[in-house]
Write a structure and sequence with these properties.
About 25% of the residues lie in helices and about 35% in strands. The protein has helices at about 1-20, 90-125, 135-165, 210-220, 225-230; strands at about 30-35, 40-60, 65-70, 80, 85-90, 170, 175, 185-190, 195-210, 235, 250-255, 265-270, 280-300, 305, 310-315, 320-325, 325-330, 335-340, 345-350, 365.
């Protein structure tokens, strides 16, 4: 009986001991990462700056004389040619002033004719000692006064003609007209706001500012004036990200740095045959700065940064991750030059960075296939 009790206790103990055992944990699977080799290739650095489109020519159309608007002669937003009539101000008053001025001139000419004849008569008599010097001098003075009055009258006619001509307001150059700010019947004058505006958009200017650091870099590589930078092609990207079809050329390089912003103002000229670029539009301006034939490059997505600086994660021959500090050179939209820290064919992690830690093993997925860097590739703002 005692033996059976002992065997029962032994069976219970074995059962309880077997239930407390935990299964062994499965082996950890290393994370999978995508890698890219460090390569040597040609790399071009590009400055990318926000710019603003400005009209090649722009003019506010204002009234130079007072009067009621009698006629408008254009469609808002339409193309106009130099000399086209845009507005007509009521002319009756100015025509009357012109006739009055002409009448004053005729009277002055008649007076001049009489004083001139009197002067010649007094001169002849004076030469014969038939009149006194005083009579001769008075005749000469009257003639000079009459000549002055004629000159004033001629000026009055010219001013009246100008005032009359100003009633016809014409386009100053080929371009596109804006909105009318006044309707027929409104009273306008030199103190009124502009009647409309005309802009020339066959060619446009793009104004942008480069930082003082970019100025120093430009000077180091030889771009220090308009003459040295006139061969530099400037590329635009519009607000929708599309590359503008026509490259531009730098046409203005300011002579000093703006003390408030620390930037230098520049302008580039662009052809605008399809009127894609509209004054006031914001664009991205890309300027090639320098180019290297054998730059040591990695994909930009491999680069990380913390308070100690830039670094990358490298996978060694044993598929162990290690952290490597690097210094940077030329920066491109997709590629970045490494000056120190890496060697050709070393493998950097380009995808899966969030899952790796230095000293841990990884599994290698498919190698990243990087496209060749082309100068036409759209850069991103740094």
């Amino acid at each position: 009986m005692k033996l059976r009790f002992l065997l029962l206790l032994l069976a219970v103990a074995l059962f309880l001991n077997s239930g407390c055992e935990k299964p062994a944990p499965p082996p950890q699977i290393p994370p999978t990462v995508t890698i890219a080799p460090v390569k040597k290739q040609k790399l071009k650095e590009t400055f990318l700056i926000i710019g603003k489109v400005k009209a090649y020519d722009e003019a506010d159309i204002v009234a130079r004389v007072k009067g009621f608007l009698k006629k408008t002669n254009f469609d808002e937003g339409a193309a106009v040619k130099k000399g086209d009539l845009l507005f007509l101000i009521e002319q009756d008053q100015y025509k009357a002033n012109l006739e009055k001025s002409k009448g004053v001139l005729l009277a002055a000419l008649a007076t001049l004719r009489n004083t001139d004849m009197e002067y010649e008569r007094q001169k002849s008599l004076y030469n014969k000692r038939a009149v006194s010097k005083r009579n001769y001098d008075e005749a000469h003075t009257d003639k000079m006064k009459a000549q002055a009055i004629v000159m004033q009258a001629k000026s009055g006619v010219k001013l009246a003609e100008l005032d009359l001509s100003y009633t016809e307001i014409r386009a100053p150059f080929n371009g596109y007209v804006g909105l009318e700010n006044y309707s027929i019947g409104n009273y306008v004058g030199p103190t009124s706001k502009p009647l409309t505006s005309v802009v020339s958009m066959k060619n446009v200017r793009v104004e942008f500012n480069i930082s003082d650091k970019q100025v120093l870099k430009a000077k180091k590589i030889g771009y220090d004036s308009i003459k040295s930078a006139e061969h530099v092609k400037v590329i635009l990207y519009t607000a929708d990200g599309a590359k503008y079809a026509h490259p531009g050329e730098i046409t203005f390089w300011d002579n000093q740095i703006d003390q408030d912003t620390g930037t230098l103002t520049m302008q580039a000229m662009f052809p605008n045959p399809r009127l894609v670029l509209i004054p006031g539009m914001y664009v991205k301006v890309a300027i090639d700065a320098q180019e290297k034939d054998n730059a040591l490059v990695i994909p930009r997505v491999a680069l990380a940064e913390d308070i100690t600086g830039y670094y990358v994660m490298i996978v060694d021959k044993d598929n162990i991750v290690r952290r490597q500090k690097v210094t940077l050179g030329i920066r491109h939209s997709q590629k970045i030059e490494i000056l120190t820290g890496l060697k050709v064919n070393e493998r950097v992690v380009v995808a899966g960075l969030q899952h790796v830690r230095p000293g841990t093993p990884v599994r290698i997925g498919s190698d990243r296939k990087e496209p060749a860097v082309k100068s036409a590739t759209k850069p991103k703002v740094k």
